[in-house]
Design brief:
By secondary structure, this protein is an alpha/beta fold. It is built from six helices and nine strands; from the N terminus they run ββααβαβαβαβαβββ.
Length: 229
């Protein structure tokens, strides 16, 4: 059983076990009506926390079991976005593959029919140094400063428009548009840069799949994030 915690004209807040809620009446009511499921479940840790997370193989089975429940809620062009952090092998300075195994199992769930649309990196330079044993005590690893957001859908073409999330042009791009010329032609990567392709002012450039949670100081030493243009 769940109880309704709060309701306004904008929506409803439910408190309870997600698998139980979505497997019962609430899931039936929402079936085929949800455009976006955006969730940050407990990360795939290999040890128990006080908030009662699943650990290890139990976590993988739990997350994979959520895939058909989530997929059942989606509209035909709806999306699922799941934030997932890295996991580490207990007592060792070694990253576990648990988060990747959980993701692959989720996407490949035969009852969900999902595909992975894109991976996003969420970079937070203010995260506390972790895993502490290997970062602040032994000093043989870097601060784990990012999580991944995995965008999935039931179709190759879910509702999406990158023109809605443009970012401000850089000073160099503003100068290029003002100047009206640039070095066109073939690149070593085999990309063909047209004569006028970059001269149209679209009001901003296409967003990257790398999100920064705060402005990055160019003088700041890198964490486990390397940037190169």
């Amino acid at each position: 059983m769940h109880h309704l915690s709060h309701e306004t004209d904008l929506g409803t807040y439910h408190l309870g076990d997600s698998a139980e809620l979505l497997g019962a009446n609430l899931g039936q009511e929402l079936r085929g009506k949800v455009q976006l499921i955006l969730t940050s479940p407990p990360f795939p840790l290999n040890r128990k926390k006080s908030y009662g997370n699943f650990a290890g193989q139990e976590y993988k089975e739990w997350l994979v079991g959520m895939a058909p429940l989530f997929a059942d809620l989606l509209t035909e062009d709806g999306s699922i976005v799941v934030e997932m952090g890295n996991s580490w092998v207990p007592g060792r300075p070694v990253q576990s593959l648990l988060h990747l195994e959980s993701l692959i199992g989720f996407v490949n769930s035969p009852d969900a029919d999902l595909r992975l649309c894109q991976q996003f990196v969420c970079f937070n330079p203010s995260r506390l140094p972790s895993p502490a044993q290997w970062v602040t005590i032994k000093r043989n690893r870097l601060t784990d400063s990012y999580t991944h957001l995995w965008w999935m859908a039931k179709t190759d073409f879910p509702k999406a428009d990158n023109r809605k999330v443009t970012r401000p042009y850089s000073d160099s791009m503003k100068s290029l548009i003002k100047r009206g010329k640039y070095n066109a032609g073939k690149r070593p990567s085999e990309h063909g840069i047209s004569e006028n392709g970059f001269l149209t002012d679209h009001g901003g450039s296409i967003a990257l799949n790398h999100f920064e949670l705060e402005q990055i100081d160019e003088e700041t030493a890198p964490l486990n994030d390397l940037r190169a243009a």
